């Protein structure tokens, strides 16, 4: 016997059978609806990009250790996009003169990261992105926070179930440069260290800090910066805060942002977190990650922030942007944990599907003719090709939950009529072809709207 191939998809990838796809499409539709409600438009980028644009802006780890690289014949290296933001920046840079600002765009890309598959993380995943570009004010960040809250509310989630943990890169710059006196060129390493703090165990983390900094003062500072849950708590841990810190852009921006989220009444969904610094290099302002507050799902569901200089690798223009990417896989785990996926989504609804059962094969092309009339009216229609056994055909229609079955035999074929069977009341009647659609609507009316709602 010849060797059989594995039926499994590649490690870290998933086959979406119709029920799983139905569920993820349902989630995507809700996200799209919310984005559109805020005036956002959908865009799409290629799956493959030159590796350089990610190497220049994302993070070394993402490009060197976590990417799928495709080599072209002439040695040119392409990357299967591990995230969308550099591609978005490229698209904006390409047409920046024509695009009206602020640009409000969303996209639902498939991304690839070569990381260890685990709960909430795959190697191929969908990551809806929502970004606003060309709006410098904090109102853009505030809008993005509102979109996140609305997405969760639309699913029925509460502030007890999720939180947006936020911080500001500018604020952390001010803390590390003006209070802790860490040299500016070391701050990226400090951010990296903070980002890793909850991704390693204590021993590994200490070793990582010693290897990276070899400086006890910086290491102690990182421990102080790690897990404050409010600005006051963080500042309370630090000595000798100079007046210029309170004048710094970072402090002023973050405290204003906190006032705004309070004033628009979303502060119960948001928690300051000094350890949230984001692993990607391009962030410059307000940054955030969304987590399940329970113990079930420990990885971030959303991640995002403000980036001021992303376009600089493509042109001399400066357009600021802010937005987020969300892991669809993480979001669906979250929704399942809190039972927020309605049962109706789990099974395909056949209640508005018209089912054609024929007594024998002589009616086959008549069945096709009927089906065309029905589909032209926008009703889904299935023809049963087993032709012989009417009982079996009706049984199948019943199993699917079909409400209307059209039965055709030799009389119907000769007279150009059709027998309509209402599977719920079990009533049957024979009507002329030109009455068919009205009869279908009559039955639908009897069942009210619910049964036939999409
Ligand atoms: P990120 O934090 O790298 O940000 O990813 C955002 C979200 O994508 C994560 O919170 C997570 O839910 C999901 N995600 C990441 N890796 C995986 C994976 N291997 N499997 C499943 N889901 C995953 C970014 O990518 C930024 N470009 C987001 C952004 C948009 N910033 C501004 N605009």
List keywords for this structure.
2 domains; alpha+beta; Rossmann fold; 454 residues; BirA Bifunctional Protein, domain 2; binds histidyl-adenosine monophosphate; 5-stranded mixed beta sheet; 8-stranded mixed beta sheet
Describe what this molecule looks like in 3D:
The protein has two domains: 18-344, BirA Bifunctional Protein, domain 2; 350-453, Anticodon-binding domain (Rossmann fold, 3-Layer(aba) Sandwich), CATH 3.40.50. The protein is of the alpha+beta class. Strands 1-5-8-13-12-11-9-10 form an eight-stranded mixed sheet. Strands 15-14-16-17-18 form a five-stranded mixed sheet, sandwiched between helices. Strands 2-4-3 form a three-stranded antiparallel sheet. The mean pLDDT is 93. It is elongated, with a radius of gyration of 29 Å. The chain is 41% helix and 18% strand. The chain binds histidyl-adenosine monophosphate. Histidyl-adenosine monophosphate is lined by residues 83-85, 113, 115, 121-122, 125, 127, 129, 131, 280, 300-305, 323-327, 329-330.
Share in β-strands: 15-25%
Q: Strand sequence of the main sheet, in spatial order?
A: 1-5-8-13-12-11-9-10
Q: In CATH terms, what is the fold-level topology of the largest domain?
A: BirA Bifunctional Protein, domain 2
Identify every distinct bound molecule in the structure, by name, code or SMILES.
histidyl-adenosine monophosphate
* Low-confidence regions: none
Q: What does the main sheet amount to?
A: 8 strands, mixed
* Averaged pLDDT: 93
Number of strands: 18
Tell me roughly what share of residues is in helical segments.
40-55%
Structural class of the helix and strand makeup? alpha+beta
**Overall tally of structural domains:** 2
What would CATH call the architecture of the largest domain? 2-Layer Sandwich
Roughly how many Å apart are the termini?
48 Å
- Can you count the helices? 18
Shape verdict: elongated
CATH superfamily heading of the largest domain: Bira Bifunctional Protein, Domain 2
Radius of gyration (Å): 29 Å
Q: Which CATH class of the largest domain is shown?
A: Alpha Beta
């Amino acid at each position: 016997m010849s060797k059989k191939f594995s039926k499994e998809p590649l490690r870290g990838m998933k086959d979406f059978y119709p029920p799983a796809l139905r569920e993820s499409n349902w989630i995507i539709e809700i996200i799209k609806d919310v984005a559109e409600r805020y005036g956002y438009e959908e865009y799409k980028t290629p799956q493959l990009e030159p590796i350089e644009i990610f190497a220049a802006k994302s993070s070394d780890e993402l490009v060197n250790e976590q990417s799928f690289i495709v080599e072209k014949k002439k040695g040119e290296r392409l990357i299967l996009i591990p995230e969308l933001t550099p591609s978005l920046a490229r698209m904006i840079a390409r047409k920046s003169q024509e695009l009206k600002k602020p640009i409000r765009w969303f996209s639902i890309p498939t991304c690839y990261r070569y990381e260890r598959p685990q709960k909430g993380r795959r190697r191929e995943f969908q990551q809806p992105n929502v970004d606003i570009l060309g709006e410098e004010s904090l109102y853009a960040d505030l809008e993005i926070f509102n979109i996140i809250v609305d997405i969760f509310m639309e699913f029925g989630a509460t502030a007890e179930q999720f939180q947006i943990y936020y911080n500001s890169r500018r604020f952390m710059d001010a803390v590390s440069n003006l209070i802790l006196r860490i040299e500016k060129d070391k701050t990226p390493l400090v951010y990296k260290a903070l980002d890793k703090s909850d991704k390693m165990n204590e021993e590994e983390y200490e070793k990582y800090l010693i290897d990276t900094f070899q400086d006890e003062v910086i290491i102690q500072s990182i421990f102080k910066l790690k897990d404050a849950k409010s600005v006051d708590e963080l500042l309370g841990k630090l000595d000798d805060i100079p007046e210029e810190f309170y004048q710094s852009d970072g402090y002023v921006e973050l405290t204003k942002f906190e006032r705004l989220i309070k004033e628009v009444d979303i502060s119960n969904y948001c928690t300051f977190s000094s350890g949230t610094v984001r692993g990607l290099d391009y962030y410059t302002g307000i940054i955030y990650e969304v987590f399940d507050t329970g113990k079930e799902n420990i990885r971030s569901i959303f991640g995002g922030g403000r980036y001021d200089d992303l376009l600089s690798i493509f042109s001399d223009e400066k357009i600021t942007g802010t937005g987020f990417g969300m892991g669809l896989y993480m979001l669906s785990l979250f929704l399942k944990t809190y039972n927020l996926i309605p049962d109706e989504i789990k099974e395909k609804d056949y209640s508005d599907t018209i089912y054609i059962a024929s007594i024998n094969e002589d009616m086959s092309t008549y069945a096709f003719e009927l089906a065309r009339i029905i589909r032209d009216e926008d009703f889904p229609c299935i023809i049963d090709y087993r032709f012989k056994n009417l009982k079996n055909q009706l049984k199948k229609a019943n199993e699917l939950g079909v409400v209307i079955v059209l039965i055709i035999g030799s009389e119907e074929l000769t007279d150009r009529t059709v027998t309509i069977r209402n599977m719920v009341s079990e009533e049957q009647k024979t009507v002329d072809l030109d009455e068919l659609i009205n009869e279908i609507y009559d039955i639908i009316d009897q069942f009210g709207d619910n049964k036939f709602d999409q």
